[in-house]
Amino acid sequence: MGDKPLRVLACGDVEGRINALFNRVNAIQKKSGQFDLLLCVGEFFGTTSEAEAEWEAYKSGAKKAPIHTYILGAASQETVKYFPNSDGCELAENITCLGRRGVFTGASGLQIAYVSGREAQQEPAPSHCFTFKDITALAAPLLSNSKFRGVDILLSSQWPRGVWQYGNSPVSAMPCSFTGMETDTKFCGVSSIADLADKLKPRYHFAGLEAVHYERLPYRNHVVLQENAQHVSRFIALATVNNPAKKKYLYAFNIVPMKNMDPAELVKQPQDVTENPYRKPMKDGKKEKPPPSMADAEEEPPSQFFFDLGEKKPQHQQRQQGRKRHTDGDRPNYPKQPRKPPQPTGPCWFCLASPEVEKHLVISIGTHCYMALAKGGLTPDHVLLLPIGHYQSVVDLASEVVEEMEKYKSAVKKFCKSRGRRCVLFERNYRSQHLQLQVVPVPMEKCSTEDIKEAFMTQAEEQQMELMEIPAHTDLKQIAPPGTPYFYVELDTGDKLFYRIKKNFPLQFGREVLASEALLNIPMRADWRECKSTKGEEEDQAKQVRSDFEPFDFAVDD
């Protein structure tokens, strides 16, 4: 079809009023010409006997849809019976159910991503609900493609939470189609759909279920002056077919598939474009992208870093659990509950509670952070400092977590100094979803702090990276707003080296520098995957480090 635009109709909740919908479509096509397809979001089927009778006419072939019609799956238990296959199928001539979730690509190259139903509130999920696994299965194959720029259209039953931010506000209150009660549309939707929309960057995103017509101003998918220009996204919520208030339920538009468009034409920005509603603006005008809540397709293999707490809990943890029950003092009858650490919305191998982690590598557990032996470490006492809760980087940490992380850093530095070693810490906030602060002890006789600094600066320069030296007391948040990819090193003097990652950053850079001939002179250990030990060897190593570190472990004393 080349660059000829497709003529598309999008519709809100039909709720069984199929004749009314197709009569309206016929009238539009008679006046404006034939459209290529009709996309229906929200609830297509109704629950009344009249609605069932209307559908039977199309199902039996007595009536035929006047246009290729694609609908989402059930959004309530009452309408599940109309869908014989949750993976999608043709329900009647010209009427196709897309399924629970997936990507539909037409012959023209138009790419439509879709997720049906409501977010599951329980496990196992009812058949009219989607789960985190559905969202991940939909997004991961697309995001793993290095050439992925976005999808043409995203269809969802539910709204993305917070879509109105930085844009025009939706109608403040309308009766919800699901409960029949008035609901504030500013609180409609779910964050999982917002996260999906942020990642898939649809040119058009349609949703239903809220009996509201809301056409948001277009929003950017890039940070101005920091990222290359990208296409804008438009979110449109559509009302219910034949609603008494005559709110808009059909939306007509022309679209040339992204793959057929001239790149310069694709990224043109309309005058009324706004900031991305799913990212927080910073004071300096930069944007903060929230930590990823779905598995990152480009994440480095996780097995280097994870540790387990199974049936036997280390002594430090038992003590730490006891500490959490202290009362407030001025409210003696109400024990103060600890603030629950942030949780990932899906699987995260780095969170301490993950059932997959290897418990034998844990060295110490505090209230907000923990320390563990690095798998495939550069040296026998190479450890990691990690938050117990789900934080992506140092600059994302809550104040109480920062405070304890500093206590761990101080304890580890004293530990290293007592053994005649310099403590080198580094973090790579790039292609990782949970903070890992690497701590590598370097024997003092091997090199000076200046040697370490020079090695990092030299190797960065060789790879055309500008590693900046920043003052010891500089708060990283001042130069790296949350969401910024970066690499930083902290030396035993407190001096810091910082690099704002642009693209193609070598994942093993920190290890490569420390393993080089100028420092530890163990180049064969630059890649942790080449340094694997047996579980028995790891247990012995962790036991030794745990014993050596105990005099410095404040978590044992608390």
UniProtKB/TrEMBL annotation:
Residues 277-290 have a biased composition (Basic and acidic residues). InterPro entries: Cwf19-like (IPR040194), Cwf19-like_C_dom-1 (IPR006768), Cwf19-like_C_dom-2 (IPR006767), HIT-like_sf (IPR036265). Transmembrane segments: none annotated. Residues 342-449 form the Cwf19-like C-terminal domain. Coiled coil: none annotated. Residues 463-554 form the Cwf19-like protein C-terminal domain. Residues 266-345 are annotated as: Disordered. Belongs to the CWF19 family. PANTHER family: CWF19, CELL CYCLE CONTROL PROTEIN (PTHR12072), CWF19-LIKE PROTEIN 1 (PTHR12072:SF4). This is CWF19-like protein 1. It comes from Labeo rohita (Indian major carp).
